[in-house]
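Inverse folding, one chain.
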């Protein structure tokens, strides 16, 4: 069983060519939580940056997005409304 569970959500309206529609103001929610019964409270406590998930996993997420936009979106955890 993996020690951690993570997810990255990119919120886009319905459309085509998703990677080309990601902009600096696109909401990206990344969560990283332990994979055990100690998890308590809502998922929002486990929000993190995409960069942190990439560092932990070795994956290059959002790699199809324009590099300048990717860098901006991946650096900060989401703080938007729940």
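Residues assigned per position:
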């Amino acid at each position: 069983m993996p020690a951690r569970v993570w997810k990255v959500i990119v919120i886009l309206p319905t459309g085509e060519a998703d990677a080309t529609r990601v902009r600096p103001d696109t909401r990206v929610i990344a969560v990283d939580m332990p994979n055990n019964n100690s998890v308590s409270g809502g998922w929002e406590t486990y929000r993190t940056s995409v960069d942190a998930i990439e560092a932990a996993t070795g994956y290059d997420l959002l790699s199809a997005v324009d590099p300048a936009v990717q860098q901006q979106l991946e650096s900060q955890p989401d703080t938007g409304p729940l």
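The chain has a mean pLDDT of 94. The helical segments are 18-21, 50-57, 67-75.
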